């Protein structure tokens, strides 16, 4: 009995000692980062949990370690978690706490970037779309309605991850305060600098009040520190390759000393639909990595592994030539670790440099996940999307309603209007957000496109005919002053021949939040190859098929022969495709496939060719611009 008691006590003390050994400290002092009392440099890579199936998180973190990194940085996507006001979801691929725990198990430090604004080529920069429906709401400024919501978000986030800070034995060592705020200050000169600073300070205080007590930092271009820094947070410089300038500007805003860190070191760059895929050479990145290592500059590769903008998560930019530049589904980013988690020449180049400079052991990269090819997936059914008007109750209004007015965040809305008398002339929709296929009595007559600034076309609507406008939200703007103008659908009057068309508008909601069920379309579902199916040419259609697998693995579905739309695999929206490129394939993670029967559903908006099959390939096509 006495022996058993001694054993129990020994086990208890042993476990307590183990727990104590897991406790870590992380602080900024004397111009350096200190972990457990020793000077440490941060060699980080940005990798977002929501852009990777959770089953692959550990593999990707091991890939980072194999490249020589000791830290993972991640944004937190507010809109991913608060899907409706007060409705929170941190499960499955959204389980941020589990992602952080796995990083800790792999021996990595974690940098948390909670925003609440994140940019990240992510829908609305991470803001929930429904914020736009709150009266008096002004995002990203010292606005009570907005700050009430950011406070609720930050407090709820703390419930999930607060205990994972290093101050409580977890791997989180730093938390970012706001994000690239200096850019916004420069873009919004209509807001006084004092108000900008007051807002930034309040976000910092909300983080502290919630319980975040690890070191805070800000990140901005080095020329934007005046507006972006906030007292008590370490300033870091994004994209700064000039080390002397980095040290000069950090010294200016941090009491004349470091540590010096580039919070976003770009080994690649973001990519838009209808534009060339950007590439950055491996040798250039290796040289810059070595320069940082030689000069004791900490860094974070943005992105080290981009992953995928699954579903409707991709955001958008804009410039003078394009009123919207929608981001592609792939977030490969020309990163060192490819979209599917593969080693690249850039990965090898960085790893070779890291091995020469770091004192810790660098493990081998894990083996890649299996890859399969499916030569042919037969499609068996196709449904007429315009026929939804027969079985769905519309919202009616004198004027077209926005997505937000329809309480719909994403997807599509079909706007229809019946004309008792003929009308012809120029159809103009200056408030199109973002892409529309226009039909008259089910016959396609044209396409309007915010990306190409095409807001008008000639139209002829005969007597007793119906105008149908299928509008797609291609992702809300995530960067720049236009982020405050992010409603979707038709947001201004529709005119034909200069006459405003009012009265009698019907709006059919197509959020595509789940894979369409062809059973709901009943008599408007046809067998592929039938006369009725062939008549759906140039009409929006939903295709369905099944395929059987003996083994699963990652693969890439080839959509080059298709037009524009989205794909569901076993009920999961894997993202958008668009014939303009440069992305022609979509990544399908093997963990979303299963042995036995699988189901594919494709919503094709243009349907210029009636399809009968689709196939997958083993290599992605991301650089084929049409």
UniProtKB/TrEMBL annotation:
Residue ranges constituting the Glycoside hydrolase 35 catalytic domain according to the UniProt record: 33-356
Describe the location of the Beta-galactosidase 1-like first all-beta domain by residue ranges: 400-510
Q: Which InterPro entries match?
A: B-gal_1-like, BetaGal1-like_ABD1, BetaGal_gal-bd, Galactose-bd-like_sf, GH, Gly_Hdrlase_35_cat, Glyco_hydro_35_CS, Glycoside_Hdrlase_35
Q: Which keywords accompany this UniProt record?
A: Glycosidase, Hydrolase, Signal
- Segments spanning the bilayer are none
Record-linked SUPFAM superfamilies: (Trans)glycosidases, Galactose-binding domain-like
Residue intervals of the Beta-galactosidase galactose-binding domain: 540-598
PANTHER family per record: BETA-GALACTOSIDASE RELATED (PTHR23421)
Q: What is this protein called?
A: Beta-galactosidase
> In which organism is this protein found?
Bacteroides caecicola
């Amino acid at each position: 009995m006495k022996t058993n008691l001694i054993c129990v006590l020994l086990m208890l003390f042993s476990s307590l000692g183990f727990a104590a050994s897991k406790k870590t400290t992380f602080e900024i002092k004397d111009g350096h980062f200190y972990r457990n009392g020793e000077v440490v440099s941060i060699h980080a890579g940005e990798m977002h949990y929501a852009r990777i199936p959770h089953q692959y998180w550990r593999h990707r973190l091991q890939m980072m370690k194999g490249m020589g990194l000791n830290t993972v940085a991640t944004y937190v996507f507010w809109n991913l978690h608060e899907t409706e006001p007060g409705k929170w979801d941190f499960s499955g691929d959204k389980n941020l706490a589990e992602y952080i725990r796995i990083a800790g198990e792999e021996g990595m430090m974690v940098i948390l970037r909670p925003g609440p604004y994140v940019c990240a080529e992510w829908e609305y920069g991470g803001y929930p779309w429904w914020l736009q429906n709150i009266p008096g709401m002004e995002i990203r400024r010292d606005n009570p309605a907005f700050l009430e919501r950011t406070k609720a978000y930050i407090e709820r986030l703390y419930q999930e991850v607060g205990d994972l800070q290093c101050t409580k034995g977890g791997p989180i060592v730093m938390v970012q305060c706001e994000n690239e705020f200096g850019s916004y200050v420069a873009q919004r000169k209509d807001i006084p600098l004092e108000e900008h600073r007051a807002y930034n300070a309040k976000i910092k205080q909300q983080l502290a009040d919630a319980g975040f007590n690890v070191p805070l930092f800000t990140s901005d271009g080095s020329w934007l520190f005046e507006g972006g820094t906030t007292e008590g947070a370490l300033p870091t410089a994004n994209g700064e390759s000039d080390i002397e300038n980095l040290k000069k500007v950090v010294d200016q805003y941090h009491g004349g000393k470091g540590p010096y860190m580039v919070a976003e070191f770009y080994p690649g760059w973001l990519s838009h639909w209808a534009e060339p895929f950007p590439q950055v050479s491996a040798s250039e990145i290796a040289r810059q990595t070595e320069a940082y290592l030689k000069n004791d500059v900490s860094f974070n590769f943005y992105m080290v592994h981009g992953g995928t903008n699954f579903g409707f998560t991709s955001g958008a930019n804009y410039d003078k030539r394009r009123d919207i530049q929608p981001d592609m589904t792939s977030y490969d980013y020309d990163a060192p670790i490819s979209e599917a988690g593969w080693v690249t020449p850039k990965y090898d180049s960085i790893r070779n440099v890291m091995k020469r400079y770091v004192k810790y052991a660098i493990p081998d990269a894990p083996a890649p996940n299996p890859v399969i090819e499916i030569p042919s997936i037969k499609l068996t059914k196709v449904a007429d999307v315009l026929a939804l008007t027969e079985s769905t109750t519309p919202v009616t209004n004198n004027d077209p309603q926005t997505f937000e007015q329809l309480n719909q965040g994403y997807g599509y809305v079909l706007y229809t209007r019946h004309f008792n008398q003929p009308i012809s002339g120029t159809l103009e929709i200056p408030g199109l957000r973002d892409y529309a296929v226009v039909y008259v009595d089910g016959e396609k007559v044209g396409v309007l496109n915010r990306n190409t600034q095409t807001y008008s076309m000639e139209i002829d609507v005969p007597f007793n005919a119906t105008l149908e406008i299928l509008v797609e939200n291609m992702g809300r703007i995530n960067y720049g002053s236009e982020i405050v103008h992010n409603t979707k659908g038709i947001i201004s009057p529709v005119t034909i021949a200069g006459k405003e068309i009012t009265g009698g508008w019907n709006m059919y909601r197509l959020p595509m939040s789940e894979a369409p069920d062809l059973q709901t379309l009943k008599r408007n579902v046809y067998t592929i190859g039938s006369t009725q199916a062939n008549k759906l040419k140039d009409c929006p259609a939903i295709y369905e098929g099944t395929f059987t697998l003996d083994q699963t693995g990652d693969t890439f579905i080839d959509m080059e022969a298709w037009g524009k739309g989205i794909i569901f695999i076993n009920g999961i929206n894997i993202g958008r495709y668009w014939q303009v490129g440069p992305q022609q394939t979509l990544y399908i993670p093997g963990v979303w496939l299963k042995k036995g029967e699988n189901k594919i559903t494709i919503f094709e908006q243009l349907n210029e060719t009636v399809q009968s099959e689709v196939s997958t390939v083993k290599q992605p096509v991301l650089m084929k611009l049409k």
